Amino acid sequence: MKKAKILSGVLLLCFSSPLISQAATLDVRGGYRSGSHAYETRLKVSEGWQNGWWASMESNTWNTIHDNKKENAALNDVQVEVNYAIKLDDQWTVRPGMLTHFSSNGTRYGPYVKLSWDATKDLNFGIRYRYDWKAYRQQDLSGDMSRDNVHRWDGYVTYHINSDFTFAWQTTLYSKQNDYRYANHKKWATENAFVLQYHMTPDI
């Protein structure tokens, strides 16, 4: 119930501006983390508005076939995201945003800023910095209870195939801030993900 209220609030915030909507989008992502050897599957529904607002809701599942006992299970996790596009010119856009992640462990917040460049009408490149802050504490390597916060840098290549489909490649570098390690015994790990987006509705 609490998650539903939060999502409703996010969507109401976006709808409070003029109702000029872009396409509602469904995207499916498959990702692989080098640090934990875990495979991720994501289902995401998003909606953008020509007033600059964008919002999404997604669910993740992890396939920890390599017995990753230190990797948090993400079954039935829910994530809500909202951002606002600031056009610098015809090609460059800055998007400050906030991601809120709900899991059985607690809530994680991820403020971020993304810079993107439209190389052509169909090809886009982007970079993003996000800081993942956990509202809950976990035991670190020293045995203390601390927050497993993470710095992350993302790179994007997005190609608009046609009016129905968009393909994207995302590469991510994670770096733990405090006394924690990934399953590769390092403070950093990488992830590469491929995304196929389906535009469920035409632009309005």
TrEMBL record:
Native source organism of the sequence: Escherichia coli
GO MF term (any one): porin activity
Cell compartment(s), UniProt: Cell outer membrane
InterPro entries: Bact_OM_Channel_sf, Oligogalacturonate-sp_porin
Protein name: N-acetylneuraminic acid channel protein
GO terms, biological process: monoatomic ion transport; oligosaccharide transport
Keyword Magnesium: no
Signal peptide positions (record): 1-23
